Fold each of these.
Amino acid sequence: MSVVPRAIIDHAALRHNLRRVRHYAPHSRVLAVIKANAYGHGMVEVAGSLGEADGFAVARLEEAVKLREAGVRKPILILGGVQTGAELALAHHQECDLVVHHLAQIELLERERLAGAVRVWLKVDTGMHRLGILPDEVPAALARLLDSGALAGPPRLMTHLGNADVLGDPLTERQCAALRRLAGPETGELSIGNSAGLIACPASRSDWVRPGIMLYGASPFSAGAAADQGLRPVMTLRARLIALRRCRRGDAVGYGGTYVCPEDMPVGVVGIGYGDGYPRHAPSGTPALVGGVRVPLIGRVSMDLITLDLRGLPGARLGDAVTLWGEGLPVEEVARATGTIAYELLCRVSPRVAVEHLGRTGERARGNDGEAKGA
Ligand SMILES: *Cc1c(COP(=O)(O)O)cnc(C)c1O
């Protein structure tokens, strides 16, 4: 029995969640967003199981190169684009699509003499005010892009939704309309929806959608559960009970003694902590799952350990598996208890955690290893 915490990645759930994307946006093509190591799930492994996606999106060139080196042949869009001539040449060599969100990136395309052409997605700031050129600047930007002679096909237009996670926020519809107004004979396909957008806002189901978090089975909304959208959690984070204690009334548990036992009570110590990516600021009361029963975290999270109130589970045994999130305990619930979002919890699972991939597409294709043997 290993006491190393494990992130179990359920590739059948991943493929199921991609089918949920298709359910919501049946007429859109799907760029599966697998930046930040596929939100902590393993970028190359996730790409391997999402063969049904139409392409992938990553934040940075380095991520795209890693995918190409792993043999991924599908379209890859670099959401941040490139900043230098050397990066542009590498992106072109690796046949990556580029976001152009800044005039400096247009100048780069004008200045560098590429041996071929690149596909460009012109990013428009329709109201989020982070990346993108303003709608007023689009006609001039399009003219310059077309003149640069560097383009493979007409520039596609994209925008990113700032408040789509808040159901009914009027900004979302305004952003969709603002991008759609810019489409014309010189522009190619459009891309608007992220997970929250494509689920809740039909106007964001553009030619291409860019789901991230929903592929991993977490709800993109600030309230509600992923199960409401028929999504299944992909990552289950597990550790084990490595000590069982009986604390006395008045005992203060952990660093700082922030939790004081209100009565004599069983306390479980679990071999996971912030050094594994479990959030240090998770307060007492944050749920964990032991043998299917929810029990509250008590005291401070330490680097390698957390402590649980086991009064609700008198039969707990040394070595029992503890689920920190995933199957049976939605990550968004832990995120809300902790004052953060599922994205952050998933992304920051640390390399110290052992990753176990179950049901990878490649394994199934090879035959009877993998799933069957692991069962
Ligand atoms: C990360 C990202 C997405 C995916 O967003 P989710 O909320 O995870 O679906 C889509 N588009 C852009 C530009 C992004 O940066």
Note: The longest strand covers residues 235-247.
Amino acid sequence: MCVETADWRGMCWCAVLLLIMGVSESGEPPWPCPQCCECSPENLMVNCSSNNLTSVPDNINAKTHHLNLANNLLKTLRHRQFSTLSQLQELDLSENILSTIEVEAFHGLQNLLTLRLSQNRLKILPVGAFSGLPSLHLLDISENEILIFLDYTFREMTSLRKLEASENDLLFISKRAFSGLLNLRELSLDRSNLTSVPSEALSQLTGLSCLRLCLAELTILPNNSFRRLGRLRELTVSNCPLLGSLATNSLIGLNLTSLTLTYCNLSSVPYVPLQHLVYLCYLDLSYNPIISIHPNLLGDLLRLQEFHLVGGSLLRVEPGAFHGLVYIRLLNMSSNQLVTLEETAFHSVGTLEVLRLDNNPLICDCRLLWVWRHHLHLDFDKKPPICNLPVHVQGRMIQDFTQVQLPGLFTCRQARILNRKPQEVRTDEGHTVQFFCQVDGDPTPSIIWLSPHRTLLSTTGRIRVLSNGTLEVRYSQVQDSGYYHCFASNAAGNDSISVSLQVRGFPASSPRNRSIHFFMEGWSFTSTQSPVNDSQGLRPFPFDMKTLIIAVTMGFLSFLSSVAVCFVFMFFWSQSKGQIKHTATIDFVPHSAGAGPARGGSGTDNNRLTMKLL
Ligand SMILES: *[C@@H]1O[C@H](CO)[C@@H](O)[C@H](O)[C@H]1NC(C)=O
Ligand SMILES: *[C@@H]1O[C@H](CO)[C@@H](O)[C@H](O)[C@H]1NC(C)=O
Ligand SMILES: *[C@@H]1O[C@H](CO)[C@@H](O)[C@H](O)[C@H]1NC(C)=O
Ligand SMILES: *[C@@H]1O[C@H](CO)[C@@H](O)[C@H](O)[C@H]1NC(C)=O
Ligand SMILES: *[C@@H]1O[C@H](CO)[C@@H](O)[C@H](O)[C@H]1NC(C)=O
Ligand SMILES: *[C@@H]1O[C@H](CO)[C@@H](O)[C@H](O)[C@H]1NC(C)=O
Ligand SMILES: *[C@@H]1O[C@H](CO)[C@@H](O)[C@H](O)[C@H]1NC(C)=O
Ligand SMILES: *[C@@H]1O[C@H](CO)[C@@H](O)[C@H](O)[C@H]1NC(C)=O
Ligand SMILES: *[C@@H]1O[C@H](CO)[C@@H](O)[C@H](O)[C@H]1NC(C)=O
Ligand SMILES: *[C@@H]1O[C@H](CO)[C@@H](O)[C@H](O)[C@H]1NC(C)=O
Ligand SMILES: *[C@@H]1O[C@H](CO)[C@@H](O)[C@H](O)[C@H]1NC(C)=O
């Protein structure tokens, strides 16, 4: 009885089951759904995410288009694991603990378009793991622990357009790793540990248009880093704390419209490497320790529309910095050390639409008046520029001042040269002369001095400009004579003076006398880069005398050099013989100059020289 009852019950369940199946058969085609998964026949979708699954369920409908296995505990994908799912278009395996993908794991998925494998524990992708995926468009293998891409890993993925491989521990990409990716448009290698640019591997990707990479260990971007990537339009190099510069030809071969070089160690704008990028519209150099933008060096980027340099160390944007950039419409210079941004930096501020100058220690004087004048047309991106100085307007937004308040605000004091009494100096050759150029103005004027030949004088050399604006002519020479000009200028205006210098040569001076004179100066004056031409063409020594003598007396020079030294002294001795007593006495111990070469040739042990100048 008991058995019969059981049989009866079993038959009953069977009938119920048949009834259910019959019902479903009479309606839609059957859609078996794996336990714990959500199936949506109308979308051809099976959603098995977040189920602690340790293996891929095996009763998945062959007609499924979308299969979600994300956030489970899958560890391994076996050989031909999905071979029955030939209709599958999207497969999500992210957030599992996958560490092994066997060869041909995805074989048979000839219609698969998207494959997500991010946030797993993959360390290596065996060659052939991705074979049999001829239609795949997107492959996401980001946030794994992949160390290396081997040759031919992606060989059969001829349709792949986007490869997302950021946040891996990638150290190396083999030369032919990307071989076969003929249609790849986008490649992301962000936050990897690459030690060098995988130039060879990248050169296979001739269709690439967008590349993101991170070069954690590189100090300089080498020449020809991206050769054969002529279709590349967007390049992002980011998070490279050691990258201090770009080699001259590092970006050669590229025709970019967008370039991002952020979070690196660039201390200046890479003007020369960028020069040929005439189609560039977007340039982002944010978070680099760049101090200034120099004049007239970005002009080749004639189509540039957006320039970002946020969070740098910018102290100055020189007048003319954006000269030639006739389409610039966005400038983002938030969080720098700028005290001002002059209108003269731009080609024309009329094109500017968006300006970010917030978080800079701005001085609200005449140089920033243009910002106030244009504030109705400018978008400050909700972060308007704020005055830091002068004190009485500290903390106020430039746009908040009214026309009525304006007089007395945003003012400058024109550059003025203070002591204007004539400076005319007559002196004898060899004397040191100073000319003064004291200035006043707000902002502090810059001072330049021009020589009689209208060349700019620098802060080094025999004729130099001191830090207080004074011009110093040391060891004056006849050819230094003439009028020198001091120019002082600031944003509010300029001022200039001329001073005159007349240097008298020695009476009845002859080339020989001059020669000796110059020779003597050589003891105290060792600058080899005199900015003024030596009109007499007198170049007494090809090297520094002081060094030479020290070297000789210390016994560093051996036989050969002592011969050379002897020759040099021989030369001068013979040149200045007769007149030498008028200016100098040269005592030459132990060998007499005349016997120099012969004795040197005999190679005596005593090769020390002592020289006295009286
Ligand atoms: C799949 O299921 C998960 C959890 O059950 C849910 O969060 C997710 O939105 C579902 N996905 C789709 C496409 O329905
Ligand atoms: C998966 O496992 C975790 C921890 O073992 C548990 O808290 C969670 O409820 C499980 N989820 C499901 C859907 O069983
Ligand atoms: C990659 O770099 C990250 C962060 O810099 C580091 O934690 C990780 O250990 C590196 N991996 C390898 C394999 O060097
Ligand atoms: C890059 O190429 C330029 C021009 O050929 C050369 O002058 C420069 O030294 C090279 N730089 C490096 C780092 O190789
Ligand atoms: C960045 O460059 C500067 C020199 O420009 C150098 O002193 C500094 O050490 C570099 N920083 C790093 C992290 O390499
Ligand atoms: C460079 O790119 C621009 C814009 O994408 C394109 O119009 C131009 O033809 C390209 N020039 C070359 C030489 O490829
Ligand atoms: C300027 O840069 C900051 C910081 O990167 C960013 O948040 C902001 O959106 C940028 N503004 C514009 C207008 O690009
Ligand atoms: C400028 O400095 C130099 C040297 O430091 C000094 O000799 C000269 O008197 C100074 N000039 C003025 C105007 O202070
Ligand atoms: C100096 O100022 C005058 C007008 O005051 C101006 O014409 C001239 O161009 C300025 N020169 C320089 C070098 O700024
Ligand atoms: C050299 O200069 C002195 C004055 O310093 C002069 O007396 C002498 O005649 C000059 N010698 C020659 C050859 O010109
Ligand atoms: C310097 O001398 C050379 C040769 O004597 C001459 O060609 C050149 O023009 C001179 N330069 C100046 C600035 O006088």
Note: Residues 1-27, 515-543, 580-614 have pLDDT under 50 and may be disordered.
